Structures are given as C-alpha cells and as structure tokens.
Amino acid sequence: xxxxxxxxxxxxxxxxxxxxxxxxxxxxxxxxxxxxxxxxxxxxxxxxxxxxxxxxxxxxxxxxxxxxxxxxxxxxxxxxxxxxxxxxxxxxxxxxxxxxxxxxxxxxxxxxxxxxxxxxxxxxxxxxxxxxxxxxxxxxxxxxxxxxxxxxxxxxxxxxxxxxxxxxxxxxxxxxxxxxxxxxxxxxxxxxxxxxxxxxxxxxxxxxxxxxxxxxxxxxxxxxxxxxxxxxxxxxxxxxxxxxxxxxxxxxxxxxxxxxxxxxxxxxxxxxxxxxxxxxxxxxxxxxxxxxxxxxxxxxxxxxxxxxxxxxxxxxxxxxxxxxxxxxxxxxxxxxxxxxxxxxxxxxxxxxxxxxxxxxxxxxxxxxxxxxxxxxxxxxxxxxxxxxxxxxxxxxxxxxxxxxxxxxxxxxxxxxxxxxxxxxxxxxxxxxxxxxxxxxxx
Length: 442
Ligand code: EPZ
Fold this sequence. Notes:
By secondary structure, the chain is α/β, with parallel strands linked by helices. It has 14 helices and 24 strands. The structure holds ligand EPZ.
C-alpha cells in the first residue's frame, strides 16, 4: 500500500488549480443512465471513485469512452441496460454507488443494488432513499445483502414510478440526488421537501434540465419535478471541488504561506472563508474563479460547528481541526452530521496535538508543536487533515493507507509539491488508482 512521506515546516507559495468536484461528478455520471442518448461530461476529477463509477456503469452495459483512464472527459452511452445491478464488489469500495438506484428505477422500474453498510465515519443508513422510492410506488425487499426494488408492472419488466410528495426526515445529499433523478421520468409531479441545498445538488439539477427534465426550486429546500416521458443526451461540465478548494485554503493558512487558488468557485466557500478569517487567515477573492490565502496575524482559536450547506461542511472538519491545533486558545469543534467523524483526532494527538473528545465535540487546545511520526488515515477527509498536520510538523510524518485520499483528491502530492511542500509518495504493493481495496469507501 502507498504511503506519503512529508517533511514539515515549509510555507506553501505559488498557484494551484482546483479539479472538478468528486461529489458532483458521481451523481452526474449516474444521471447518464437516465437516457439512451450520448452524454458527454467534462472536468471529472482524476480520482479513484470516478474510476469505480465508470466500472459500475460499464457493468450495467453502458458504454463509457475515455481517452485514457483516469480521465477528465467522459462520453457515456446507455442505449440498453442489461444488468440493472450494482454488485457488492464495487459498492464496498464506494458508497456513492447507491446513486445508480434512482436512475435505474426511473429508466427500468427495477434495480438490484448492494446495501452499502456502515463506514468509518458512521452507520450511514439509506432508509430515506428507500422510503421515498416506496412512496413513488416501488416495492423494496432486502435479500442476501442487496436492495431489490421494483415498480409492479406488466410481465417481468418494472413499471413506471409515480410522482409523490416526499418530506425528507433528515437532510441527505445523495438521498436528494437519488430521488431527484428518479422523479425526472416518473408519472406526474414530485415535490421534495427538506432537500439538501449543496452546490453539487444544484449542479445535478442543471445537468438534468439540459437533458429535458422539468425541475424548479434549485438551491432551495423544496424541489418540484414534473416527470417527462424521456430524457435526451447532453454535455455538461462539473463544478470545481469546494472541499479541495477549502483544503488548499487551510494549507496556505496553516503553513503561513501565500497560495493563489485558481479554477475554483469562491461563492461556494462562504462558511469556510468566514471561519478561516475569524481564525486569523487573510483571504481575498482575486476574481470570480480565484482566491488568495496568506498568513495573517497569528492564528487564533475559533469554535466551529459542521452543518449542511450553506453551513461549514463536515467534509472540511478534519482539515479545520489541523488548523485549530496551531491556533492560540481552545477551539470547540462540533460534528453534527456524522456520529464517528473524529478518528483523525487520535492520530493528531500522536503527533503532539492537545485534543480531547466529548461525544460529538472536540476541544482543541493550541498552539501545539507537532512532531512527525507514522499515522494512519481512516477516511478520505481524515487523510487530508493528517497531510495538513504533517505540513507543519517538525521532522518526518509518514501517512499510511493513503488509498483513502486517492479516492477524492486529484494529484494531491504533485499539487502540494508544486507549491513548495517537501513530500513524496512511497509506492507499496497492492494499491494504486486502479486497485480496489477492501475498505468501505465514503
Ligand atoms: C454526502 O454523503 C457526501 N458524499 C459526503 O462526502 C458528505 O460527507 C455528506 O454528503 C454530508 O455532506 C457524496 O456526495 C458522494 P447524507 P451522503 O445522506 O449523501 C443520515 C466525502 O468525504 N442519513 O447527506 O451519504 C446519515 O447517516 C464524503 O466526500 C440517514 O439517516 O450523506 C448522516 O448522518 C463522505 N438516512 C446524515 O443523514 C439516510 O437514508 C447526512 O448524510 C441518508 C442519510
């Protein structure tokens, strides 16, 4: 398995370009299943999860064309889908495989998708996806670890979903995306209340609309979808990755550097920029796609609570914790989205951080002089937090299990080295972009 070796203490300076959003690219790729026509998608990040999604679509008999893998431009054609199934082998490496359930049910009225199960950051049930589909007429059973869903219809084929009024008990990002996709081809109107308002949902709405879907309310908590008989092909460019952007904002601030971050969407960074400024970082919007972060005055503690968008993203919590270890005073970090998302804290403590955990709150007392050691990544964003801690630690930090970070950050080592980080990837056996691991993907 690959590892990262980081020699900390270098201020990062220069310019870094942000890749497309992993969490936008995944539903956008799944949405290509909704039509028999050609769908071209651009700005796909070259990360392992997108390779997995591509394998999944191919398994279903969609034709996925790329110049070389991993790619940023894909053409997907799904004239026929002969296997309406997401097998365990792929789902176990990537929970987001569940995003194929809505499109399959919309297009074929039948689907078999392996249950994702829990993962390092929490139990993460998909009950809200399933109860919404049931409201739309699907009959769902669990068998041998699989979700088997079917809309009763004539013969062996599934029937058509029907529009329904659905109130999500809890805000769910992929739940909103799944049911949104399912509703585009349903009979009649679907109203979804308490929807996720993440930019990735809005990006998906934009793509579906170009395919002929009738959707109102994007960016709000209520989406209204009038089902249409069929959708057509389109071309779509996914939005910049706001979590990668936020991670580089922290990298600039924590190392006392001066980073210009290009190809990003500053409008999606409101909560992160506000919190980092409160903690003492100096951030300015250079233009509509560029941010600059510099060390300001000394970093100072600032409490942070994760929330659904437009609040501070749970996917930025580990990175913020790394910053908090360097801030003067006590930062209270509250995690409200996932029940077990502090696994990086104990690794940071091994590096010398002063962090205590009480349930869903972490008390980070800073500043602490971090010193390099060997640490283990437990999930994608935890890995990013450990990389940031390594960048300011004294001496050498070795991060193990970096297959987690390869799931979601494109060329992270190359990008950080280009702005002055002293780090390298140590290649081990049995890992890499194309190899699946037994870890449950987040
Ligand atoms: C999405 O996961 C993201 N993944 C996650 O990013 C992100 O952390 C999360 O949203 C929250 O922002 C993708 O977009 C592919 P949820 P998702 O459903 O949709 C509970 C990363 O690092 N819930 O919004 O799976 C759930 O347990 C990843 O890139 C139910 O109870 O998250 C959680 O507590 C990790 N029942 C809360 O809702 C359900 O049916 C929010 O989860 C669904 C969710």
